[in-house]
Amino acid sequence: MISKERLQSRFLEMIQVFSPSGRELPMVQWLADYFTQRGIEFRTDEAGKAYGGNGKNLVAHIPGTIPGDPIGFVAHTDQIEPCKDIHPIVEGDIIRTDGTTTLGGDDKGGITAILEAVEDLIETKAPHRDIYLLFSCSEETSMLGVKNMDLTMLPCKDLVVPDATGETGILAYKAPAMEAIRAEFHGRKAHAGIEPEKGVNAIVAAGKAISNMHIGRISPETTSNIGRIEGGGATNVVTDSVFFTAEIRSHNLDVLMSEVAHMEECCRKAAEEVGATYEFSHERAYHTLNVPLDCSLVKMTVKAMEEEGVKPNCVVIGGGSDANILAGHGYRSVILGLGMKDVHTTDESLDMNEVLKCTKIMRRIMSMEEAE
Fold first, then answer.
1. What mean pLDDT is predicted for residues 52-74?
2. Model's pTM, two decimal places?
3. Over the stretch 347-372, which tens digit does the pLDDT of each residue have?
4. SS3 helix, strand, coil % of the chain, rounded to 5?
5. Was domain 177-286 assigned CATH 3.30.70.360?
6. CB within 8 A of 115, min separation 6: which ones?
7. Known catalytic membership, residue 78
């Protein structure tokens, strides 16, 4: 039987495993030991080596006993820092931090829920579909783990991802694509107090460019942000070099690329106006996620929620996750809420009653044949 006490105990154990992005190996080993003890086959890759980390993507396989295509469950092993020496505070169903670290509900709460559903399968010997469990590394750093994953380890195309903030019942089926942008301006140095007219200030060029860009909420489906700007040094020197990094997200790829073009045009005009030069680059950080509401994966998840007395809340989100990267490779994903709040901060908390509900929903999905 699914145990709330075991669920909470395992979560509290898991968050003591130090696993910041890029250094997730201890958490991978924890999972490897878990599956080895239960005789569950698993594979790992060497994804972390591609970007200087030590993490691995781990995929476990539980052979099915009923008809139907395989189903996958996904959670990530990395955690936002500071996450060393976590001192959780338990207040009824709520587990929170002591204000000095993150908690790790994102996404060790998701890992805990998946594993408890598996425990019930093992204990009850209940019939179930062919199941794959993916525990990815470095999701929080632009999904580097899945971007460098050996995808032959994950042959199923339908995935359930317990990694959304908010209450159980949230079912995210649509998320935007994102373009990562870097712009660099080059001017000319000069003494700022003696002969500033001989200089070309790169900061001025960057400032003019940014002032003409569409920043923030552009439309209901599109956002833009300047994340970092850096350059210059002493105040008595006209700055000759500065760069900024930015992002644009949109559910509409035509709009996305139009906004990228607009941002570059702002850079071109500003550089021309002050006599500077510029370099502009961009790349697709992740693809859109857009799962049809009438597909079998959504129908099955909604049915499982309703059978557990949870009202489904199908939503469009503005964030990116492993699901976006996997969508670019033909996978379908639904992202489930499980009671996370204030993630990525030292105020983070997790509602274990919501985690329990999410566990029961995923457990139902494991034993469902495909929805009609």
1. 96
2. 0.91
3. 999 999 999 999 999 999 999 986 54
4. 35, 30, 35
5. yes
6. 10, 34
7. yes
User: Which residues are CB-neighbours of 188 under 8 A, at least 6 positions away?
Assistant: 198, 199, 200, 238, 240, 275
| pLDDT band of 68, cuts 50, 70, 90 | confident
DSSP letters of 324-357?
HHHHTTT-EEEEEEEEEESTTSTT-EEEHHHHHH
pLDDT at 186 over 50: yes
In the CATH hierarchy, which fold is given to the domain comprising 4-175+288-366?
Answer: Aminopeptidase (3.40.630)
Helix (H) or strand (E) holding 106: helix 105-124
- Choice among 45, 78, 106, 167 that is catalytic: 78
Query: Over the Cα atoms of the chain, what is R_g?
Result: 23
What is the per-residue pLDDT for 67?
A: 87
CA dihedral 194, 199, 203, 205 (to 10 degrees): 140
Out of 45, 107, 130, 139, the active site residue is 139
Going from N- to C-terminal start, the domains of the chain cover 4-175+288-366, 177-286
Can you give the pLDDT at residue 88? 97
- Determine the residue type at 224: S
Phi, psi dihedrals of residue 356, rounded to the nearest 5°: -60, -45
